[in-house]
Amino acid sequence: MEGRRGAPDDAGDQGTISMSAELQQDRVAPAAGILSRFYQPPYVGAFAFVAVLGIVPIMHSLLSLVTDNFPPGHETAISIGLGAIAIAMVIYASARNSEALGTWFGFIAGHLVWTGWIELSFRFNPEYIDMGPLVVNGEKVLSPSLLFVQATVGLLMATLPFFVFNRDTRCNAFRWIQRVTRYDAGKPATAADRNFARITFLEVLYVIWFCYAVSLFLVDTRFVGSHHPITYVAGFIFIAWTFYLLMRLAKFTRVLAGVRYAIPTAGIFWTAVEFAHEWGLYDEFWSKPQEYALEMGMVLGAFVLALLLAVVMPARRASGTKAQAQSQA
Length: 329
What we know:
By secondary structure, this protein is an all-alpha fold. The chain has one domain (34-184, 192-317). The chain has helices spanning 43-69, 74-96, 99-120, 124-128, 144-150, 153-164, 172-180, 196-219, 229-249, 255-278, 293-312, 322-326; strands at residues 134-136, 139-142.
């Protein structure tokens, strides 16, 4: 989050939004080679979480590199290009009707769209009108672009019910809301009919968007404030929630389902990480990739390793029918 220091940030993730949640209970297909030991819990969930979490600081670094190294006016073209590439990835993966391709392409495309069409594009108007940051009692609270993001919260809340009361949702939180409100969404579509590229793409966008909304209002001193007791309690709740979700994620046997479940898990965790930065507990080195090249190299290496291990893991279980395998989210 581009907090008080104006450092660019993505927003990690979640607050009750989209959890693709179905714990796998069948065993993974036996695999030959030294990697076979990792094709089972808890490694499946661990690699999925690291891969999903690792892309967040990488996107922050990409944003910083673009804004710091390209002349003014070029950001718009870059933002359009990133978003266009992302949409092309979603269309291509949707046409292939592959769960693996749809999950990975949808995941990456969601982050590219947020970085290109939201993070970068929301800088255009503030820079054009030479808009300054939000200052409260002499203290910089939010950067101009984050004020624009904050203004979209109404749109978020207007569109979120469509996903909350969707019959095909696999989110535990949304299903709980449906049960509490006694809403009958109808029979969900089969896994074979699900567009995993679209599902994962929208999940990434809404998780980031929701986590932004929560964090921006909590750190904004006009509403709560970074050092308000409510924000400290919220940070603790997010950490506890993350550990609970990680314990569930550790039971997954299918990496693709694990990746989709890790998206909100990483989002919730990253929101707490952002709070820690607001409290002055660490410096966001991913916002200064040229200054912290070694640290970012380590993050990039860990992300690539986790991503490769997650990609080569068996996509489906050995036991059960194909229909049963496809029903796993």
